[in-house]
Amino acid sequence: MNRWLRVGTLWLALAAVLLPRLSVQAADDPVETDRLLPSEVAVYFSIPDVDELKARFAKTAMGNLVEDSTFEPFKQEITKALEGISGKLEEELGVSLKALLQIPSGEFAFAVLTPPGKKLSAVMFLDFGDNEKTVDALLEKAEKALEENGAESDDEEIDGTKVTTWTFKSGGNPQQPNKLVYFIKDTMIVVSSDLSTAKGVLTRWDGKHSDTFADNDNYNLILEKCKTDDEDGLVVWYINPIALLQAGLAQAAAQNPQLALAAVFLEPLGLFSLKAIGGSADMATEQFDSISKTFIVLEQPTKGVMNLFQFPAIEQKPPKWVSSNASAWFSVNWDISEAYQAASSLFAMVPNAPPGGLDSIVDNLAEQEPRVHLKKDVIDSLSGRIQVVVEPAKKKGDEKGQDRVVVAIGLKDAKKFQATLTKITKTPGFPGKTREFKGATIIEFEVPDFSGSLEPKMAGLAIGKDQLMFSNDVTAVESMLRGDTDGDALVDSAEYKAIAEHIPAKSSIASFSRSDSQMEALWEMAKGGQAGLFLPMIDFEKLPAFDSVKKYLTPNGGYSVPDKNGVLFVSFGSKKK
């Protein structure tokens, strides 16, 4: 048996929680893991109920797809592959794959802690329900492997619970050897990298401790902002990136003191205003097939690096030139002037920065050909609105070409920017060619066709409708300048309207996408044999024809809105009517 596989047996067994199963819930609901942790949590991830996660997945479009009869031949391929894996697992662990996947029940969670004055520690929780015999068998196998690899164990009883500590003598810091600590209480196994962390969990087991992560203000704000149908979600997560960075730097500085200087720059860079990031994910809710929310907690007013990313909310919807055939539309409103000012302030902090800072560099560059001033001629002319449109390529015989991508950047002063663009095109050696079209100047470039064709394509750039338009296909620019679309406008389509009703009237970011268009290319690639290069034991030709899959796929949407406490991002899949 491979020695590293044996050492990792315990972790492999516990990782099975990521694959859900149905099991019997304990009569008394256990204390939620966020109440078993101290306040100094930097990373937290929880699936509050693995059983519920599986049950809800079965109600989603993807869950229905998997149960479709046309999918059965491919499911048999998966089953055969899993049987092979199960045989090897049973040989190594003494437990079948089926038994392994039946372990998780109730909550699975893990966390990374930053105890003051100590190194980072990790802890994982697994509720195994009525599968204690399987867990015991795996632990016995794991402990034997640990012992064979030189680890030493020590047992002690804490509050009536046996706690086992395994110490790894080889590798790591001899003064602070690596440890693996675990205990079983009720129907929960808890594994930690630190004995004091395990003790802290046991101290909070009744859920009445006065210092818990569940009382963290930023964590609770994230839960409040990211509720779905008044629930916390099937998956909940939280990160305190600055606490994690500080703890990592402090730990590294113990070996290299010079790294401690890096922490000095966190405050001037404005990173301390980033308090936390977290969110939730849910499936088969009343309104959505799937939905995920992310909230970034920001202390106001922001400064430094944070001011590079200011996105004011405005009314956003696809313009009429976006065709209903578009597979994706994305729009963001960026305060680019504020970003320039933030960049200028940050540049002034650079050691030995030239007098006058960033402005002086920009002024000097403007004295060189083509004599364009980055701030006055470019940035001051941009509105900050940026839109991206993707249109699926049309098939030529049996081959499908490259998708057309259009980028449209809003302009405050189109006439002034046209003059700037004309200066650039007259620079000696400029690679593009210009031509007139419908009263506008189109600049053409030759670009490769990444769809596999050996023939180059003509990309195009032009100014029209108060926007700087660019596309990898010049015909898309021509369509925009004409104001026509290939079919009806996206904004008038039923598919877009079904998404738009869930997007606020004003947002920083708004998006629409067709999951069928995005998945079709990947599906055909897999069915054509490319996926078999990575998973040769599975015959991907058994996948059903995409047309039988398409009916399950619905459009997706997303948006972002600013909040007095930060910013909220939402992504969702619509529910089939």
Question: Overview of this structure, please?
Answer:
By secondary structure, the protein is an alpha+beta fold. The protein has 2 domains: 3-22 and 33-52 and 104-248, no CATH class; 301-556, no CATH class. It is built from 18 helices and 22 strands. The chain has helices at 3-7, 9-15, 50-57, 61-67, 72-93, 97-101, 132-148, 195-203, 217-225, 241-253, 336-348, 357-365, 374-378, 414-425, 474-482, 494-500, 515-527, 546-550; strands at residues 41-47, 108-113, 121-127, 152-158, 161-167, 179-185, 188-192, 235-239, 274-283, 288-298, 328-333, 382-391, 395-396, 399-400, 404-411, 433-437, 440-447, 457-464, 467-471, 509-514, 555-563, 566-574. It has a 20-stranded antiparallel β-sheet, sandwiched between helices. The protein is globular and about 85 Å long. The chain starts with a helix and ends with a strand. Mean pLDDT is 87; it is low at 1-27.
